[in-house]
Amino acid sequence: MAASNRDRIIEAAAALLAEGGRDAVSTRAVSAAAGVQAPAIYRAFGDKQGLLDAVADHGFVSYLRGKQSNPVTDDPVADLRRGWDLHVGFGLAHPALYSLIYGDPRIGESPAARQGSEILAGMIHRIAEAGRLRVTEERAMVMVQAAGRGMTLTLISLPEDQRDPSLSEAAREAVIAAITTDAPPEEPRGGAPVAAVALRAVLPRTTVLTAAERALLAEWLDRIATAGEVPAAG
């Protein structure tokens, strides 16, 4: 199948999704809108889920471009704040697409969601390198994703005139308080756990240790960070 036909199918499905939600993206409707036969859709995407994943990837491109072009500053926590706001803003601007990507429980992530997770992982890693992460990078990822996605889906479910922007801000600050510390790297509040997370983040760049030594040290640092996670101030 020519690339132009594939693109036309994706664009037709994306338009149907925006207009009528996921239920509007039927094989018959997409075929009619794209001007192709139904078998052509299955040959290109395998099944309907394959088509939906392609639509999600297509729609996610503009969001990822915005997030990747978001300037990186010397304050990784501030960068995470901006990333959160961009994520929520994308969801409210494209509710059907966002719900397609994040609304359905599934084992693993869709290709589009995986790309977003990689960007978030980079943000979290920079906070760890700065010595400002009070939990492991893995836990921080899960906490930010759960809170951010949950808040966005909740706001999408509300009538527009009932959406309170301060809810997102409050959730954002609660998560940031739970995973970060404002103490300078020289005197990290939380002592060993915070220091262990920071050292673990830069360990892969250490060249004076063998692979086996790095693996052993990584295990020790993970144990210190996990056993001594710093309780958030409250």
Automatic annotation (TrEMBL):
GO molecular function list: DNA-binding transcription factor activity; transcription cis-regulatory region binding
Key words of the record: DNA-binding, Transcription, Transcription regulation
InterPro entries xrefs: Homeodomain-like_sf, HTH-type_TetR-like_transc_reg, HTH_TetR, Tet_transcr_reg_TetR-rel_C_sf
Domain HTH tetR-type residues, every copy: 3-63
Known DNA-binding region: 26-45
Keyword Transcription regulation: yes
The protein's name: TetR family transcriptional regulator
Annotated organism of origin: Allonocardiopsis opalescens
